[in-house]
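PT: before anyone asks, these are the final sequences, not the draft ones from last week. 365 residues across everything. Please model them as a single complex and drop the result in this thread when it's through.
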Amino acid sequence: MSDVPKPEWTVEGPVAQRHLLVVLPHPDDESFSSGGTIAMHHDAGVPVTYLCGTYGDMGRNMGKPFFANRESLRDVRERELRAACEILGCDVQFLGLRDKTIEFEDPDVIAQQIRGVIEALAADLVIGFYPGHGVHPDHDALGEALRRAVQGMDEGARPRHWAVAVGNRDEVEADLGVADVRVDIRAFGDRKRAALEAHATQTKAMFERMAQQAPGDEAMRLRMEESRRTERFYTL
Amino acid sequence: MKETRLAGEVLVEALNVNLVQRELDRHAGQDVYLHLETTTGTYTALGPEKMPPCIAFIRNVEVQYARGVVRGGGPYRVGLKMDHGWVYGDGLTHAEVDDEGRLLMAGYDDQGRLRIAMQLGVVPFREGA
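LR: through. Structure below.
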């Protein structure tokens, strides 16, 4: 997080060589933020693991018609995540935290858990949310824990760390500048879409609404289209 | 109005007052675990009205009530009168007794999004892995 702007980098092939580790709090965060980047690495023979912080068990969308209630949502979302990761080509591990509560945990304890996974997998690229630019408190908290995990390692052993900033891009860029890493995922856009659709509790209503082409949704539709072509990251 | 929707393995039933009252009576005077929650969703500030979120939940808090009553014509209200206070919920539209004998009550909006949950069980609700 230095003040010196980093050179812009358009990525067209895998960057990790040993293992790509994605560390985000909820089932679906991986597909929204990094689905194309995950598929790109998997298809190039680089193993990918999604370390998912929670089971998304405090989500509120139970579907119409219903596909879950408060107690069954956890298992429904775990199944959705496993299906999405099958499509993208990555393994799944869980930290086992409760949705919405990560910011109240001790960040150094979570950082230690994450560091253990980084070292066990010999990950040379990690992806998380940009601390302070995650919008959702879980995003910020797990992004910070990942940052501490990486920074706690010896400099020579640290993986490359890419961070995802959420929210209105103009506002994000006013704070952080332009994302230095742009991954060209056009070849993986359909897989990303299929993985997002596998998270039906989170995306079915959104895709149905977008398909109706309501005039007010134009900006969201453009963002979704753009997200099938490019994934943007900030190198920390 | 009895409405039953089956989707996947999930049965979500419109709140049946008789069933709920029977279950509230059954748990009266014993220690029960409570899950009580209201939520707007976390991302309300990104919506057109830019409203801040309003969310609260308590999970697996042990309570004991002497009297529990369901009221209203739908959506429904439930009040649990305890020795030193109350548990209250309004906006409940659905209720079921799950396989483990827990009373799961909830209120949803017309998109199937949960607005309130009020649940009672004699063993703690699942937590963690």
